Amino acid sequence: MSPRHVRTFAAVIAAASLGLAAAGTALAGDDGKGAAAPQSLGSNWYAAAPYLMPLDNDPPDASAVMDATGLKAFQLAFVLAPNGGGCAPTWDGTSPVGSDTAVAGVIAAIRAKGGDVSASVGGYGGTKLGQTCATPEATAAAYQQVVDKYDLKALDFDLEEPEYENAAAIHNEIGAAKILQRKNPGIYLSITTAGTADGTGWFGKQMLDEAKSQSFTPDNFSIMPFDGGFNGAASQTAALTKFNSLLRSTFGWDEATAYAHEGISQMNGRSDTGEYFTQTDFQTVLDFATAHHMARFTNWSVNRDRQCSPPDNNGRTSGTCSSVPQSAYDFTKYSVKFAGATPPTTPPTTPPTTPPGNDGCTAAAYSAGTVYVGGDTASYNGHTWRAKWWTQGETPSTGGSGVWQDLGAC
């Protein structure tokens, strides 16, 4: 099994104890949602947040990592469907988000030090919510529980095998991301998928086509150029160049716009398939990313960002150390450098143009390409309208199917 998903129950217990201990102090300022209210961080920090498994792979003390590196944000992994099936969010398929205290405690400790977190949904192992939830709306509702529970300002969709080979599941995931983007203005969304020498493979291209068909643009599309015949920085920057071409051809962007929507997720040290990526490789990729004004620079994972014993781990890959000589958190420090080199930006997605006569309305302007569900509001021709049930492409009016209720002039 990949070291990304080795289950260590002792680590689960240890992390839970850490979370509860943190909750004793950091949760004093709790907003009632299970974790302290987030700090106001620029999107540069969410774009640089490295992955951390808070319940697996011998999680390090996040506060100690922050003290040692200056890091302000972590990408917590992974939110999945329950191992027994269903459309409810869980950590690693075993710990329901709704009743969680352990991860909430870790988040509270990070926020108490001025940091924040994003949550990553999906990953390589386990069953994904896009596979078990019947529709994009149901999938979005499950993820909204995570956003609400932890008051999240950022979310990552890690679309990998076997989910991204399932067209219906990817339709649900992309549709859910679009709904979340609409319902949570300003939320930072990343889409992460496999990397290949061509940028990404057939299923990754299918995912991009799905995003285009749904008119969905996240803050970035990131590839993982490892575990696919890569070795060293040159192979990774070549893949990023190819992926830039894919983004341009799919969405009609120019080169600079494509790079402004492009990210990379690396694996520090020895990869699952025996590739090696050293500190020098990370610096080279960082230089490429900053020179091209890329949108994201992250890695798997903080749990692995420490030296094994012996340093090469006898030529094996581990989920808890890097299998290369290093000092603690060498690779995390590159994320801090990227955050410092990337100024905070406004999310790149442009909201729909307000139709004529819409002045004074506070609800978002109606868009024919947007899916609305019961209770959603939109403004049109100077009036605010509320959807009674699911609809798309039906202009607000008092006629038609009767889906829209006129709430009056703005």
Describe this entry's structure for a reader:
Strands 1, 2, 3, 4, 5, 6, 7, 8, 9 and 12 form a ten-stranded mixed β-sheet that branches. This protein has a three-stranded antiparallel β-sheet with strand order 13-14-15, with no helix packed on it. A two-stranded antiparallel ribbon has the order 10-11. With 410 residues, it is an alpha/beta fold. It has two domains: 3-341, Glycosidases (TIM Barrel, Alpha-Beta Barrel); 353-410, Ribbon (Seminal Fluid Protein  PDC-109 (Domain B)), CATH 2.10.10. α6 (136-150) crosses α7 (167-183), α7 (167-183) crosses α8 (202-213) and α8 (202-213) runs parallel beside α9 (233-251). Mean pLDDT is 88; it is low at 5-29 and 346-359. 51% of the residues are buried. It is built from twelve helices and 15 strands.
